[in-house]
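To close the chapter, one final illustration. This time we ask the reader to focus less on the individual chains and more on the assembly as a whole: which components sit near each other, and how the overall shape emerges from the parts.
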Amino acid sequence: MTNKELAVVYCEGFFGEMDGKTANGLARHSDKYEITGIIDSTKASLDAGEVLDNKANGITIYKNIQESLERKGDSVKAFIYGMAPLSGAFSTKDRDVMYYAMENNLDIINGLHDFLTDDEAFIQKAAECNVQLYDIRKQQKNKQRQVFTGDITKVQCPKIAILGTDSAVGKRTSSVLLTQALQELGLNTVMIATGQTGVIQGAEFGVPLDALKEQFISGEMEKAIVEAWEAKNPDVIIIEGQGSLSHPAYLSSCFIIRGGQPEAIIIQHPPGRENLGDYPDIKMPLLEDEIELIEVFSKSPVIGIAINHENMSDSMVDETIEAYMDHFERPATDVLKYGCDSLIEGILATFPQLQAKLA
Amino acid sequence: MTNKELAVVYCEGFFGEMDGKTANGLARHSDKYEITGIIDSTKASLDAGEVLDNKANGITIYKNIQESLERKGDSVKAFIYGMAPLSGAFSTKDRDVMYYAMENNLDIINGLHDFLTDDEAFIQKAAECNVQLYDIRKQQKNKQRQVFTGDITKVQCPKIAILGTDSAVGKRTSSVLLTQALQELGLNTVMIATGQTGVIQGAEFGVPLDALKEQFISGEMEKAIVEAWEAKNPDVIIIEGQGSLSHPAYLSSCFIIRGGQPEAIIIQHPPGRENLGDYPDIKMPLLEDEIELIEVFSKSPVIGIAINHENMSDSMVDETIEAYMDHFERPATDVLKYGCDSLIEGILATFPQLQAKLA
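The assembled structure is written out below.
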């Protein structure tokens, strides 16, 4: 039925929460792996789709790695570390679980800044078990990295970035859904991934920007887009954003704008979140301030608003969408609930050349 | 007369120009090294101060390394690579010159992204010659690097960043001169270096930001400032800027603002420059646009304008200063020509607590 490699995703204690964003993303969408189970004892035996979106997707949550492998037999080939803690490092318990995975012939896919392939004990264990270690964020040598060249001006199709007001607000999910919706509409659409989750999900173009040295981030962003343009000749390019321009630490979106030069931006915002996810002492920015900041920084318009409905009732979501459309005079929606139609209306109105391709 | 280590600075073909910025900075100011000569055959036998600022400073430019060492005997202990080409890599000729320096018992100080201590041949040669190799931009391991914590709010004194409209416009020079001028006025002033040149010049606090991975830049900026605050209890902190917020590639100033949270900004601008120094196909930003961008991005005011007088006659400089003061209604000056008085007036007007310390 599929050529995807079977994988379990480890997300102990965090599935469905902010620090579980890699696992959440993979449970929703993966081109490269077929996810056979999630490991999180605090939500054992629930359905992953139910936990995330109140919609079952057939992926079971298991109480531990043993159970996740018993149910699926020998066909599982990969263990994906699905958490993204601020520290970027493994706990002792994490290491024990990964050892067990290697002993059961699973390759390990790691998106943290803590690298398995820098760890002698891990390297030796992987060799004994005859499995591979993949550090998604590990940099290649400097010489293979590229500085900004200006080649981005060669790209002739509209580029739309999905930026946000914080990290872990759903920018990647909206990027994936919007890319699919534009494709279904008949537009040749390419998504550029900019974080480790997008890369693990199997995005054909992109790079985890936050693992790069500053001097190369803008250039590598540009290069990923130019490569996508040359390889696929797309009608439109969707660029996944990271963090926010106002964030105290997660500023990759500055490079996404400068290296990628999007002609339009869609902003993702969780109205029910009061403080920054990773910095509970810092208030969330106001949506109007972030829109102004994006438009001044990029000199491109914000053409739509995507709401993240965390901590919101259904009626609050609907009221907020209406209030935003009134106040900001732009399309607003909740893409998980209502799909991408109103965002696409905004895109077609902004880029008549795309409308023309559909006619 | 001095405890500084004697050093020659290598800047073949680029002294006084943009790609010679490390050498230019060291010829103007160095706390750690006493510069005995500059090596640049295209300007041999000229005085370095004359070339830079039309004001002799007693540092001779030599036609090659041999001549620079003959004149100064055995007392020279360090060879500083003083160029900063966009590629960040050494030429074959550079390598020959550095071999000669090592054979003459000089340690090598390197600020490029191309690391001597990653090169087997260099390591072996340095061992044979019993000299040290210093890679200023080389990262320590991840674990020693810090993410943003929010501790910046503990710093109780004003923090002023010197940002710019391009790279190599004189932000570091203005930072050094302003720090000295504030100290002479009687204010305990600490400068935070953010590039390799400032670190080589001997700044006690700071880090070359563009050598860090994105995830740690904001945190390391914050940490350098918090350390300076705790160690020196300064009245005011001056933060050297990098690149510009509008630059397509050099965006460290985004992290300087977010990690360092300056309460005020001074902007450095070269009115006579038409295109970006490293990107001749891209126009310089308008000064008014950059001021707006800085104020929206930082939510702090731009309280002064420092002019870089490249490509400008004396009368043009004076006319521009007057025009800027009229138009922008803020202090404007050329610090190399007229010193820092008018910038300091702006600082004292913005921060009455500093004025009070002088009373």
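The longest strand of chain A covers residues 33-39. The interface with chain B takes residues 86-89, 113-114, 139, 142-143, 147-148, 150, 209-215, 217-219, 245, 247-252, 254-255, 258-259, 279, 281-282, 292-293, 296-297 of chain A (CB under 8 Å). With these observations in hand, you are ready for the problems at the end of the chapter.
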